[in-house]
Amino acid sequence: MITNKSIYFCVLIISLSCTMNDNTRSYQLTKTDKPQTTEKDQPNKNKSTKLIWEKPDSWVLSDGSSMRLASFAIPYSGGTGDLSVIQLGGDGGGLKSNVNRWRRQLNLEPISLMKIENNISMNSGTLGTYSMIKIINQEIDSAFLCAIIPNGDYTIFVKLSLKPIGIIAVKDDFIRFCSSINFPN
Fold this sequence. Notes:
Blueprint: H1 2-17, E1 60-61, E2 70-76, E3 79-89, H2 95-105, H3 113-119, E4 121-125, E5 128-137, E6 142-151, E7 154-162, H4 167-180
Antiparallel strand pairs: 1-2, 2-3, 3-7, 4-5, 5-6, 6-7
């Protein structure tokens, strides 16, 4: 009985909301102007969405996800690597969590912070000292070359996904690229 009443009620509502005329209603809303703000009004605004860098001529700009500031296809003798540049607030979750997330992406077990620190190499760039790490899983023939570039309120992450054999071929270019990352004046 309740079901019949529900159906009757729905049919009644639908029939009352329909008309025989083919009316189209349109509405206009006035646009309100947003107040003008300056950079000093926004002290925490991320000014670094536009980075500059020097890249090798062989690197090709490619499409990436919306999270990426830049993406490149990196050719080498064994194939093509995928390089991504992203930026996260603060330390981006920290060294241990990022390295272990990358390790899981390569089907590797997480490791301790001490082991991570033993595998980190430090490099100097225009933004200061940054960390670099190689993560390799020979079983699936896949590797990452990653740089973590801290910069005050945020951190820039550069990750190159490629086959392990390609690391030697692209490592120097990767370091030069990461070392050149800077903000326009």
